[in-house]
């Protein structure tokens, strides 16, 4: 929460006049912004924070102060409406109405990384850090401003990445990160939208083509059928893959953070970590069996799965635990695929994608699938899916249990 007040600077100038300033306080840090007015101490009302009548043109000057105060409050409200955890420098930029050339890409980029870390979103900060290092390895001058990041500039950066053996997927991640940063900068008033380079420079060209990223239904059945009595070290991985699949392609992070409190009757209610969308999913029989298995373990933590093993872990500890267990999960998915005779490179993403693909081949509309998954562009999806009720999605998901086994058309 931010607060502002208009007051005098504590030290006078050589003429014993005090600059009038606006002080903004946020997260226990403050910033002083000069308002371009001077006042002797005896002409300032410290209780009302305005000029006394003894000051020349006091009424007019006080009206100016009131307008400046309203402007500051409006800027704070706009940041709140756009859900931007702004910095004091971002506030000053909007308040002063600086030109885009005043704030460098490097400065804004570092602030955004710090914002993610302070908010406990360590995973979000990593691609920003990686892309920052790559970007300024290519462009040594850290005084570059956003309007200089043009389509031609991005073309040269792409060439640099390719010369350093970056794949299409890797280049796409970096370009999407820069695009997201540019959008944040526009929202924060750092750069005018007219300079936005991604209207011309298209990122869609980096999408992988012709790569199979889903298991068909009989392949999923094989993954589910791995013999955990013969391979007991795979029991958790088998449970996670089955749970993810029958819970609408649930993300590994959301499974990791799932608590017993999220289970309400025969449904699981949770907020997706990535999009903050709220989901309520009916438990199919395979999910109920997995829940019962972990309930019987009677572990002392509030979490359903034995991934976060302690309470009150810091965001960094949670992120480290996520990477360690996800790496093991993906490694063991490949092991299961090999045991079951599948050549597919199976990952947690493939399991999530398989859910959507198999529903599609079961004849379920893309709209209902999107609703059940809460895919990345959730605001657009929910805009035209909000009329769907839970029972429609429940019926769609139950088709995953039906036979005959579905196959891709040749």
What's a concise summary of this model?
The chain has 410 residues and is mostly helical. The chain is 48% helix and 10% strand.
Please characterize this protein's 3D structure.
- The protein contains 15 helices and eight strands.
- The chain is mostly helical and 410 residues long.
- A hairpin with a 2-residue loop joins strand 2 and strand 3 (29-39).
- The radius of gyration is 28 Å and the shape is elongated.
The low-confidence runs, each spanning 5 or more residues with pLDDT under 50, are 375-389, 404-410
- From the spread of the alpha carbons, the general shape counts as elongated
**What is the string of SSEs from the N terminus onward?**
EEEEEHHHHHHHHHEEEHHHHHH
Radius of gyration: 28 Å
Please outline the major beta sheet.
3 strands, antiparallel
SS strand fraction:
5-15%
Estimate percent helicity: 40-55%
Distance, first to last CA: 58 Å
Structural class by secondary-structure content: mainly alpha
Mean pLDDT: 83
Number of strand segments: 8
Q: What is this structure's SSE topology?
A:
Elements: E1 2-8, E2 18-26, E3 29-39, E4 44-45, E5 50-51, H1 58-81, H2 88-96, H3 105-118, H4 122-138, H5 151-163, H6 168-187, H7 217-224, H8 235-246, H9 252-256, E6 263-264, E7 267-271, E8 278-282, H10 285-295, H11 315-339, H12 348-361, H13 366-373, H14 378-385, H15 390-398
Antiparallel strand pairs: 1-2, 2-3, 4-5, 6-7, 7-8
């Amino acid at each position: 929460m931010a607060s502002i007040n208009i007051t005098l600077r504590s030290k006078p100038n050589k003429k014993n006049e005090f600059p009038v300033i606006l002080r903004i306080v946020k997260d226990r840090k403050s910033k002083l912004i000069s308002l371009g007015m001077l006042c002797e101490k005896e002409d300032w009302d410290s209780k009302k924070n305005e000029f006394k009548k003894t000051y020349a043109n006091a009424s007019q000057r006080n009206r100016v102060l009131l307008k400046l105060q309203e402007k500051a409050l409006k800027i704070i409200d706009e940041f709140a409406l756009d859900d931007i955890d702004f910095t004091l420098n971002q506030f000053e930029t909007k308040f002063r109405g600086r030109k885009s050339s005043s704030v460098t890409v490097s400065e804004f980029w570092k602030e955004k990384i710090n914002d993610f870390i302070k908010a406990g979103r360590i995973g979000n900060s990593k691609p920003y850090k990686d892309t920052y290092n790559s970007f300024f390895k290519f462009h040594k001058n850290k005084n570059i401003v956003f309007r200089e990041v043009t389509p031609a500039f991005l073309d040269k950066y792409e060439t640099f990445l390719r010369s350093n053996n970056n794949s299409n997927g890797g280049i796409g991640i970096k370009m999407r990160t820069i695009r997201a940063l540019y959008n944040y900068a526009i929202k924060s008033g750092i750069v005018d939208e007219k300079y936005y380079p991604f209207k011309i420079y298209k990122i869609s060209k980096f999408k992988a083509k012709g790569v199979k990223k889903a298991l068909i239904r009989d392949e999923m059945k094989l993954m589910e059928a791995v013999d955990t009595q013969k391979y007991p070290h795979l029991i958790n991985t088998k449970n996670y893959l089955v749970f993810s699949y029958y819970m609408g392609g649930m993300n590994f992070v959301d499974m990791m953070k799932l608590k017993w409190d999220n289970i309400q009757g025969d449904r699981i209610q949770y907020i997706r970590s990535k999009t903050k969308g709220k989901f309520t999913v009916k438990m199919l029989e395979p999910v109920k069996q997995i829940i019962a298995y972990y309930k019987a373990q009677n572990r002392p933590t509030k979490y359903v799965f034995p991934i976060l093993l302690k309470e009150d872990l810091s965001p960094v500890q949670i992120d480290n635990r996520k990477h360690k267990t996800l790496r093991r999960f993906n490694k063991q998915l490949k092991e299961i695929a090999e045991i079951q005779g599948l050549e597919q490179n199976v990952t947690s993403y493939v399991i999530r994608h398989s859910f959507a693909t198999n529903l599609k081949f079961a004849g379920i509309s893309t709209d209902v699938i999107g609703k059940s998954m809460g895919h990345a562009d959730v605001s657009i999806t929910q805009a035209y899916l909000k009329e769907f009720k839970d029972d429609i999605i429940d019926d769609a998901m139950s088709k995953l249990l039906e036979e005959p086994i579905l196959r891709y058309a040749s």
